[in-house]
Amino acid sequence: MPSSSPITVVGAIMTRDGKIFAARRNPDRSAGGLWEFPGGKIERAEQPEAALRREVDEELGIRVRVGALASRHTTTVGTALIDLACYWAQLGSDDPKSSTDHDEMGWFTPEQLYSLKWSPADVPIIRDAFPRPASVHGQDLRHC
């Protein structure tokens, strides 16, 4: 049974030239080996957009311009409730070169997103933000 208070988290859906940035969690971290949109927990009294800018800077060493809310879902992951709000974002600096939390990063087409193994909290966000076209065949999103 999940805990009563959800963990409030934000994520950045960064787009460029028709591709979307995603990052794979380091194997030694929670949700290790799974892909996600970069971001993290909102601190007490912090606005979601400010938390997202801070988290992306801390994890990837880059600046982003945060746009509109793309999607928000609450997902049970183990014994936790994760309230994930993802925002459209644009790079305000160069591409990330390294990450404190990820072992792989890349730019993917919307169709390629469906071939990655995603963190369960990100799955409903992808389905909302990048609905699978009828012409794309194959497996549904993979997740734990």
Automatic annotation (TrEMBL):
Known cofactor(s): Mg(2+)
Domain (Nudix hydrolase): residue spans on this chain: 5-130
CDD domains assigned to the protein according to its UniProt record, in alphabetical order: NUDIX_MutT_NudA_like
Enzyme class per UniProt: hydrolase
Enzyme Commission number(s) from the entry: 3.6.1.55
Record-linked PANTHER family: 8-OXO-DGTP DIPHOSPHATASE, NUDIX HYDROLASE FAMILY PROTEIN
Identification of the protein by name: 8-oxo-dGTP diphosphatase
Gene3D superfamilies in the record: Nucleoside Triphosphate Pyrophosphohydrolase
Keywords: DNA damage, DNA repair, DNA replication, Hydrolase, Magnesium, Metal-binding, Mutator protein
Keyword Transcription assigned: no
Top-level taxon of origin: Bacteria
GO biological processes: DNA repair; DNA replication
Listed GO MF terms: 8-oxo-7,8-dihydrodeoxyguanosine triphosphate pyrophosphatase activity; 8-oxo-7,8-dihydroguanosine triphosphate pyrophosphatase activity; 8-oxo-dGDP phosphatase activity; 8-oxo-GDP phosphatase activity; metal ion binding
Pfam families: NUDIX
Similarity section: Belongs to the Nudix hydrolase family.
Reactions accelerated catalytically: 8-oxo-dGTP + H2O = 8-oxo-dGMP + diphosphate + H(+)
